[in-house]
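$ ./design --mode recover --in tokens.txt
reading tokens...
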């Protein structure tokens, strides 16, 4: 649906909301009917969302309604662990997913609230990833479970590496062409 991407543009939100099915209730109030994924079920279910005067408020209600419905029952815990960069113990938030969908909705909720979801800029990858800052253009490297990360020598994105190598090779080819 892409509501999160257009939250700061009321005309774009209005255009997206107009594409949705509007149903009139017994009280005469209109609501939006959406087919939404529901964790634990194979097929989407129909959900009804109230229409507000402000299109942004309607979009926020839809986004939070879908995510909250799918985040129910996901256990979260605060633990104390060693933070190598700070060289001291710090609080960390962890969760224990029961299945893959728990993990997907947890990451999706974090992406919607704190970060943005981007598409990897490397032409052969094009995978979506959660960008933890605005400057990220390439997907992050995969990290093996249980493997310690050296804070002084963090892993590099393979896609970023390939893009840099291609750029270097193209410059080298151009320089060779000018010399001849």
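writing sequence...
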């Amino acid at each position: 649906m892409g509501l999160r991407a257009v939250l700061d543009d009321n005309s774009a939100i209005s255009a997206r909301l107009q594409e949705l099915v509007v149903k009139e209730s017994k009280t005469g109030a209109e609501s939006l009917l959406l087919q939404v994924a529901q964790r634990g079920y194979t097929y989407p279910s129909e959900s009804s969302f109230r229409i507000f005067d402000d299109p942004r408020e309607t979009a926020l209600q839809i986004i939070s309604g879908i995510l909250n419905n799918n985040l129910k029952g996901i256990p979260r815990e605060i633990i104390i662990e060693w933070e190598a960069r700070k060289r001291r113990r710090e609080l960390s938030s962890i969760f224990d997913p029961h299945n893959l969908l728990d993990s997907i909705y947890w990451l999706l909720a974090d992406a919607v609230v704190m970060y943005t979801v981007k598409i990897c800029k490397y032409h052969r990858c094009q995978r979506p990833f959660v960008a933890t800052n605005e400057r990220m253009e390439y997907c992050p490297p995969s990290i093996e479970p249980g493997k310690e990360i050296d804070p002084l020598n963090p892993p590099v994105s393979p896609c970023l590496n390939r893009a840099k190598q291609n750029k270097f090779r193209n410059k080298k080819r151009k320089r060779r062409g000018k010399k001849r």
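exit 0
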